[in-house]
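Board notes (copied after class):
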Amino acid sequence: MKRLAIIGASGHGKVIADIALKNGYEDIIFYDDNEEIKECAGFPVVGKCSDAFEIDCDKIVAIGNAVIREKIQKLIKTVTLIHPDAVISRRVKIGEGTVIMAGAVINSDSIIGNGCIINTGASVDHDCVIGDYVHVSVGAHVAGTCKIDDRTWIGAGATVKNNVDICSDCMVGAGALVVKNINSKGTYVGVPVRKIK
């Protein structure tokens, strides 16, 4: 029986549980530091996040915060989960602990790092390099030949124009449009984006 421990009992964890079921996992358990949470998506929450380090089964980190996700994932071996309704080129490399949601599209010769979230209906076009712990949110689109560095968050419905680089530790707001390189970490919003902090 395939068993999966999901670290983080949240909405993100619920979606990962559904993907896990579609990938043949029959026994799913959650871990979360909030002791008031007893179940998530109909599955039991059986202990704190650190308790999952010792259990002998497949594991994945379902925490949206990239800094926390990275910290936990570096302590354990994690699996990669891909929804069967995602469309992924045969020439894509995907790192450990990454989750790719339903309706996502990743095109030829792109590289997706460790611990990434390519969310529902998001797209990453050809020849992109997506760093570790990046989140490409629901319905966001990254055009061809872009580079997005570690821990950057591309907000829901945002668009990154082709041939654009975004440095690490950035947050691009929902619905934003990135048309030129971003070289300074911070929060960017608008069409086209401007830095607000």
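Comment from the instructor: The radius of gyration is 17 Å. The chain has a mean pLDDT of 97.
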